[in-house]
Amino acid sequence: MKKIPMRRCVATGESLPKKELLRIVKNKDGEIFVDTTGKANGKGAYIKKDPEALALAIKKNALGRALEAVIEENVYDEIRKVIDAR
User: Percent of the chain, pLDDT > 90?
Assistant: First the structure.
């Protein structure tokens, strides 16, 4: 039986399988982007693929605290697009 990697959502605090989460990355240059491959270099934070989880993350500034950076609105827009597309 293969081990399923678990990750914690920064908004809800739930531990979920990695495939059910969306990875947001801050690279060495300070750029913040959505990592659809899950393998990009940099500091990563996971968020549940759910509009309510995104709203909670924005309200709590969970991604900003996890990545130690200011999150621009265009990053949240990109996350919304990925969540809506699934």
Answer: 94
Amino acid 8 reads R
- Of 26, 34, 37, 39, give the one whose Cα is nearest residue 68: 26
- The arrangement of secondary structure in 6-85, i.e. its CATH architecture, is 2-Layer Sandwich (3.30)
10 Å Cβ neighbour count for 26? Answer: 21
Secondary structure (3-state) at 31 = coil
The C-alpha angle with vertex 69 and arms to 64 and 44, in degrees rounded to 5, equals 70
- Cα 58 to Cα 52: distance, rounded to the nearest angstrom: 10
Please tell me the pTM assigned to this model.
0.92
Q: Say if residue 16 is exposed, middle or buried (CB neighbours under 10 Å; 0-12, 13-18, 19+).
A: middle
Instruction: Please list the residues that pair with 45 across neighbouring strands.
Output: 24
